[in-house]
Structure formats: structure tokens, C-alpha cells
Amino acid sequence: MKRVFTILTFFLLLINTAAYGAGIVKKELSVPSVDGFNIKASFMYPKVKGQKEFPTVVLLHSLGYSAQWWETLPKELLAEGYAVVMIDLRGHGKSVYNSALTRVSWKSLTNSAYAKYPDDVVKVLDFIKTENSKKVFFNNWAMVGADIGGSTAILAADKISYKPKTVVLLSPVVSTKGLYIPVVLANLNMDIFSISGTGDAAGHEAQDYLKKFAQAGFVTYTSEARSTGMIMLKNDNSLAKIITGWIQEYLN
After folding, report:
1. Are 56 and 82 in contact, with CB atoms under 8 Å apart?
2. Distance CA 133, CA 183 (A)
């Protein structure tokens, strides 16, 4: 009873749908953060009879965008048998209501609010892990983040007890909105795959700097896209398969 009460108290919404594609289970989540900000996420996995666990990929979007901008990457991952979690970071997409149900945009957030991004992500993942106790989703998982989503991924990976096996960074940044990642990166013993677009001098410079702090492999790749962040997926049709291929090397 205590667990049921806790779920009803702290987690407001869990809706099951199957609209993302044939044979796909999709759940829309609303998870209150520690300060009551409502964090929205989509959680999807292939509908396979008898399968009790899925390797999982968590997607964290670019600053100013939302989980709806991942182009074909979620479908590529689902087609390979992965579960996919897409989170709208606070102030973005559907995650725009605080505890007073006042609408808040990322444009008005202070650095102290951005500092809560990693905790928001951990809160959502802990909820999924708890609610799907009959299935195991986080023994074998990875994260993909674009610019501020990448910084959030690194910081969340440091906080969470069940570590991802790899992190993919799109247009990495050393520090953004107060989220500084080099020192935390030095705490993580996992391979990093970092992608920057053609002509993205800032992204390439950040890669060179972050590589010095990596404790395991730090592999870099230059996309043909002349853009940054998750928009590279729109401008480089091969990128979704390249990211999926990298993840396949780590998740079994």
C-alpha cells in the first residue's frame, strides 16, 4: 500500500498508447521533479510477446527544441529492438508547467533552474525503472544528448547509480547555462561518441577540450551537416544510422 500511495502522490500521469507504430508500446509520462515542475516524457518499446527486458536509449534534445525534433532516430532505434525514452527538458516542449501550473519557457529560466536538468532526468528514469519492475530496462542502456542535452546526459550519468554503457554527444559544449561538464566527465569510465557538423568550429573546439578529461574512449565524428545539435539529423540522413550503429556496439 505504501508504494501505491507514493506513486499516486508523486507521479501524476501514466498513459498507455500504441500509436507510434505497428507493434510499439508507447507511454506518455508526467513526472513531477523535486520542486514540483512537471517533466513530460515519451517511453516506447517494441511489443514482443514474452520479452522481459529491452536495451534502452535515452534521448535529450537541444536548447530551444523538444523531443519532437529527433527526426528518424527513435524509429531507427525501435526497429533494432531498443526501448526509447524521449524527455522534454523543463521549459521545453510539453514540460512547461511548474508546481503552481504556471507556464514557464526555457527563455526565462535562470542558471539555477538549468542546474536541475540532471536531477529531472534521473527522476524520470527512476520512475520508469520502478513502474516497469516486471521488465528490466536499465541494466543495458545508453544516452544521446544534443548540446545542452549532451551536458545534461553527462551530469545525469554521474548522478545515477545504474550507469549507461555509452553516451553520444551532438555538438558538445564545455559549459552552457551553468552546466559545466569537464570535471564530471573525468569521473565517468565509459566511451563517448562525439559528433559535430562541418564548419562547427565551436563544437570541434569543445570536443578537443573534453577529450582531455575522458577516462575511456572519446571518439569524434564530423557530420556533413552544416548545422548543430539535433538539427544535424535533419540535414544528414545518414546520422541516425551512424548513431544507432555506435550504440549497437555497446548494447546487447
Report:
1. yes
2. 33
Strands (DSSP E) contained in the chain are: 13-17, 24-32, 38-46, 56-60, 83-87, 141-146, 166-170, 175-176, 179-180, 191-197, 218-223
pLDDT for the residue 186: 95
User: Is the alpha carbon torsion for 157, 125, 55, 229 positive or negative?
Assistant: negative
Q: What are phi and psi of 141, to 5 degrees?
A: -150, 165
Question: What is the per-residue pLDDT for 168?
Answer: 98
Helix 117-131 with 148-159: angle, nearest 10 deg: 60
Reference 65, options 209, 171, 206; nearest CA is 171
pTM for the model stands at: 0.91
Domains of the chain, residue spans: 2-248
Half-sphere exposure of residue 81: CA atoms within 13 angstroms, side-chain side: 12
Q: State the Cα–Cα distance between residues 206 and 183, nearest whole angstrom.
A: 14
Assign 30 to helix, strand or coil: strand
| Residues in Cβ contact with 222 at an 8 Å cutoff, skipping those fewer than 6 apart | 195, 196, 197, 198, 204
What is the biggest distance separating any 2 CA atoms in the chain, rounded to whole angstroms?
A: 57
Indicate the class that CATH gives domain 2-248: alpha beta
Q: What is the pLDDT of residue 134?
A: 67
CB count within 10 Å of CB 43 equals 25
